[in-house]
User: Which sequence fits this backbone?
């Protein structure tokens, strides 16, 4: 079930109504949300609902074991068992094909590979996200960040809660499980903020991301050889805006829906293309993933608690695995590796003595923003291209002179709007929220209907699935 | 959420009023849109409940005059798009339509990102289309088939050729590149078109024309009507050869003349056969040869079975058509038994995944197993005979097994194949040297 569809609208309105009617009976309320989440997931493929249930039950049971164990060694053993089990599930479903392909590739260098009928399992939707939720539960219980006793129904709902199930944001068990333990307060629903997020998310997804994909990015990346430098460059910028609008649009809608249901999700994006350095970028892009990788991978590896080389090693491992998490392909590994190099390079630059005045100047801040944006765009080429060769072809096209044949004035305007919106002051959102709170509820409802109507009319045909669904 | 915000919370009562107003407002503004949505749902229980409900709603609110706003807005937008869209880019606006689902709810080809419905990438290369009325309006109808129609009982007897030669093409135009129109649903849009477009980029004598769109087919003209959309997608360009890959979304029932036809029923087969014939007639209205790519074997058994049904009907129609040729990708894509496979060895010897994650579409590497053959065919220009016919008919390159109740067209000479399928060394046992006719590829048992 995609967010911008009639089916989801009907599903959500029904779920919203019933969940608030059951708000005073916590067990029923949560049971209903769990059922709704399985229906939401089952609309894609019922066959994988048991997998979702199994992974979350497994994590919940092991989290209970960790909490009940007194011995540090036993706690660690349960943690390792849980994490290995979760990762094995992820590896089996997501990386079997990748591993097999590379094994066969190596094999074929030495002889004829076996004639087995090998297949990659069908990739369950959102598996990367729900496995990371399960690991977060185990990790937070192990580190005693989550002190509440884990209840299995809560663990199931935490992993499967439908707004975040397919593409995040990745919730921390220590943030979300306490919310599940408390009764929803029917007096403090952040309706206006939720509605603004939903409408902004729909605009990003339906009006910007889809249009850029159809009219610019897809045609140029399908056959880079057929376009000249200016088109290719605009297509790369276009993809930077497209993926931001697509993914942040999804999480905006997810956060907005959760707010209407009475739950708080963490922020996932904070105007990432205004970042002035790689570290800044990762504080603004897919925040829930970057902080997950920091807390559950980078810091356990040792973080920066060592020499420069030790830190560089940890940064590179974290980013390479983060790249691989996005997809079973070497292009994603390269994307992660590039970001690892950016982070390491920035640390070297930041340690150079005598440059504080330059670094602090406004001019440098804008130069740094421009450099950072282009470094991110260069990495996006590997992220978007289906093969390494095609990514290199894209770089090659930049040097080819020629007229624009793909990008139109309207598309370029959309692209510029997408970039400029990154610089919109956050106080505008707050002002709008406060303004809305002065409006009567029925007026706000009518305004929402008008906004959805306008988006529907202006949007292109059909709704493309969100890019991050595949991860 | 951001710490600096000062939330002004609501309570459930105001939330209820707000949502009620939203629902009422949406019903008023979107009544027509909801009917369009319901009409486009896959034929099934949801549609049978939703359609009467939203139609009643539409009748109820129409006298208020508000729903007409939507029609006005769409018309204005359409005008604006026509004024502003560059000549080579035509984006056809439709309602956001829930797309047909594949069996098993596996990632459907229809759910793949909508491909651009563009008409050209380099309009300056395009030759002006000969002045002729819209193909849709002037489609010359073939005489009704003289052979008895097929039905569910006789369908299985149609044997699909496993490997087929490519027909001869008219000579390359001397004054411009050959316009190769890529037509289809996501089977063309994903993997195949991009690989073909990339290959053609280096060939000055070939000019690709993109006329594909994901999430479409011939089952549901109410969702996307190829008969009216194709001329728009083609624009002013003159097609020299058309390559078609379509049908992945067609394994579903549809409503015709108020009757629901379930997939695979006799009436469904008959209707689909008629639609295919009309579609081919439109594509070839000026004699343009069509190469119809059969659907490759699919991963899920039930879905594969549906696609084999589509293949059999399409093969029957294509093989009877004077301007169309059936071409099977099975020797390249399938294993030795004609079944689905995921890995193969590329031309350069690397082991590659040839199918997308969904087990339906081709990956770029998969398409690259046979696009060189297609490129060689497209570039080949047979010597011009003394008296060049105005239209060189594309021959039907395959014979039909005696057991199959399929009428083989007479009178059309079969030129020698231009390029025999040369298969990159497969991972499994080598593909047998393509016989003209083989038995039907076995379907998965489960």
Assistant:
């Amino acid at each position: 079930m995609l967010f911008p569809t009639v089916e989801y609208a009907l599903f959500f309105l029904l779920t919203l109504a019933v969940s608030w009617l059951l708000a005073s009976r916590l067990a029923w309320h949560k049971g209903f949300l769990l059922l709704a989440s399985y229906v939401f997931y089952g609309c894609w493929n019922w066959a994988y609902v048991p997998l979702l249930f199994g992974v979350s039950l497994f994590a919940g049971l092991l989290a209970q074991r960790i909490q009940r164990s007194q011995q540090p060694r036993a706690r660690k053993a349960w943690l390792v068992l849980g994490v290995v089990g979760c990762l094995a599930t992820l590896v089996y479903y997501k990386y079997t094909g990748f591993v097999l392909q590379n094994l066969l590739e190596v094999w074929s260098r030495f002889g004829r590979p076996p004639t087995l009928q090998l297949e990659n399992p069908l990739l369950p939707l959102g598996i990367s996200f729900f496995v990371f939720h399960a690991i977060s539960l185990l990790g937070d219980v192990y580190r005693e960040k989550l002190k509440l006793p884990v209840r299995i129904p809560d663990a199931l709902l935490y992993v499967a809660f439908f707004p975040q199930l397919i593409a995040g944001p990745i919730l921390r068990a220590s943030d979300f499980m306490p919310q599940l333990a408390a009764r929803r307060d029917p007096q403090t629903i952040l309706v206006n903020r939720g509605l603004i997020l939903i409408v902004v998310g729909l605009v990003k997804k339906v009006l910007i991301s889809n249009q850029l994909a159809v009219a610019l990015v897809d045609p140029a990346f399908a056959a880079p050889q057929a376009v000249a430098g200016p088109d290719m460059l605009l297509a790369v910028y276009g993809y930077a805006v497209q993926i931001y609008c697509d993914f942040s649009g999804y999480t905006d809608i997810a956060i907005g829906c959760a707010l209407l249901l009475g739950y708080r999700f963490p922020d996932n994006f904070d105007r990432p293309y205004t970042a002035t350095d790689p570290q800044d970028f990762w504080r603004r892009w897919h925040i829930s993933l970057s902080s997950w990788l920091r807390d559950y991978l980078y810091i356990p590896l040792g973080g920066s608690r060592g020499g420069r080389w030790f830190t560089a090693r940890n940064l590179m491992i974290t980013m390479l695995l983060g790249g691989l998490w996005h997809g079973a392909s070497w292009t994603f590994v390269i994307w992660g590796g590039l970001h690892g190099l950016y982070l390491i390079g920035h640390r070297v630059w930041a340690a150079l003595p005598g440059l504080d005045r330059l670094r602090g100047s406004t001019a440098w801040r804008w130069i740094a923003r421009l450099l950072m944006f282009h470094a991110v765009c260069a990495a996006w080429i590997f992220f978007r291209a289906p093969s390494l060769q095609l990514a290199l072809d894209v770089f090659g096209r930049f040097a080819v002179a020629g007229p624009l044949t793909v990008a139109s004035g309207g598309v370029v305007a959309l692209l510029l709007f997408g970039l400029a919106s990154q610089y919109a002051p956050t106080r505008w959102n707050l002002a709008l929220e406060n303004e809305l709170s002065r409006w009567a509820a029925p007026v706000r409802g009518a305004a929402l209907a008008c906004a959805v109507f306008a988006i529907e009319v202006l949007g292109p045909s059909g709704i493309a699935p969100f890019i991050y669904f595949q991860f | 959420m951001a710490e600096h915000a000062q939330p002004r919370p609501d309570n459930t009562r105001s939330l209820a009023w707000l949502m009620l107003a939203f629902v009422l407002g949406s019903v008023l503004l979107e009544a027509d849109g909801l009917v369009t949505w319901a009409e486009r749902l896959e034929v099934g229980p949801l549609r049978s409940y939703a359609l009467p409900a939203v139609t009643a709603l539409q009748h109820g609110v129409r006298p208020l005059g508000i729903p007409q706003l939507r029609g006005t807005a769409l018309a204005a937008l359409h005008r604006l798009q026509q004024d502003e869209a560059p000549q080579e880019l035509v984006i056809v606006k439709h309602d956001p339509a829930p797309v047909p689902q594949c069996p098993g709810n596996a990632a459907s080809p229809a759910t793949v990102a909508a491909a651009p419905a563009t008409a050209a990438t380099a309009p300056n290369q395009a030759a002006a289309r000969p002045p002729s009325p819209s193909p849709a309006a002037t489609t010359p109808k073939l005489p009704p088939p003289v052979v008895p129609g097929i039905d569910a009982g006789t369908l299985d007897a149609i044997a699909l050729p496993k490997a087929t030669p490519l027909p001869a093409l008219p000579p390359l135009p001397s004054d411009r590149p050959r316009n190769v129109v890529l037509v289809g649903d996501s089977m063309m849009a994903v993997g195949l078109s991009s690989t073909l477009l990339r290959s053609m980029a280096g060939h000055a004598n070939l000019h690709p024309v993109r006329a594909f769109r994901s999430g479409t087919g011939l089952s549901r003209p109410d969702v996307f009507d190829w008969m009216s959309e194709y001329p728009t997608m083609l624009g002013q360009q003159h097609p020299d050869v058309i390559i078609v890959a379509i049908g992945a979304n067609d394994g579903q029932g549809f409503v015709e003349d108020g009757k629901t036809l379930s997939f695979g029923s006799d009436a469904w087969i008959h209707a689909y056969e008629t639609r295919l014939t009309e579609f081919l007639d439109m594509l070839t209205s000026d004699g343009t040869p069509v190469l119809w790519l059969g659907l490759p074997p699919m991963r899920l058994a039930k879905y594969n079975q549906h696609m084999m049904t589509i293949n059999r009907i399409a093969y029957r129609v294509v093989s009877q058509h004077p301007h169309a040729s059936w071409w099977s990708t099975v020797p390249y894509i399938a294993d030795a038994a004609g079944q689905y496979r995921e890995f193969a060895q590329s031309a350069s010897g690397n082991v590659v995944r040839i199918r997308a994650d969904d087990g339906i579409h081709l990956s770029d590497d998969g398409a690259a197993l046979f696009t060189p053959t297609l490129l060689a065919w497209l570039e080949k220009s047979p010597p011009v005979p003394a008296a060049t016919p105005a239209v060189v008919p594309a021959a039907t390159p395959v014979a039909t097994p005696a057991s199959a109740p399929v009428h083989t067209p007479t009178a059309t000479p079969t030129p020698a194949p231009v390029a025999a399928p040369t298969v990159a060394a497969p991972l499994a046992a080598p593909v047998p040297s393509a016989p003209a006719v083989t038995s039907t590829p076995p379907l998965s048992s489960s």
Chain B touches chain A through 94 residues (CB under 8 Å).
